[in-house]
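Example 3.2
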Amino acid sequence: MSENTPANGKTPVDFWFDPLCPWAWMTSRWMLEVEKVRDVEVRWHVMSLAVLNEDKLDELPEEYRDMLENQAWGPVRVVIAARQLHGDDVVGPLYTALGTRFHNNGEGPTREAVAAALKDVGLPEDLAEYADKDTYDTELRASHQEGIDKVGQEVGTPVIAVPGADGEQVAFFGPVVTPAPKGEEAAKLWDGTLLVASIPGFYEIKRTRTQGPIFD
């Protein structure tokens, strides 16, 4: 699925996200900028912080554990339900609607925000009922696993995969950045990220975060 080139000839960029994560949201807004300045097309996929951490809940801080258990399942279940019932093309717009309400507007992952986001993109508001259902958990876990298999278990969201020079996918976690670069800055970060990620044996570059996500 992920390696197929779109009919328009653009380079496919597969992006795995959990709508709850503010840092994945920042990266996703950057990727939309990259689409404007590089010949790429983003294809959106869900992954789940709840699934990623379900075997290590006892090791996590209480506040983060509470978030995973009581907030993380709902939004991603709604997105996967929308995808299963209405097709791949609704995933990106729904993510934008959810993220705008959750993060930019400060509404958080409430049932009301989810229903409003569905309405924003013309999807049935009753899809919000899937937040409490495991109907499509098998599909959710499969989508999550497809992304995480490309980078390993020791990362989070987002995961990005893009064809390398030899046709094989190059995948990585991140980049973690704030605010989301625009224009030529977005292009520079994209080019540089691909450059380092394509080096065999390259694993990590990192520095301490000194500010939180800047939503603009």
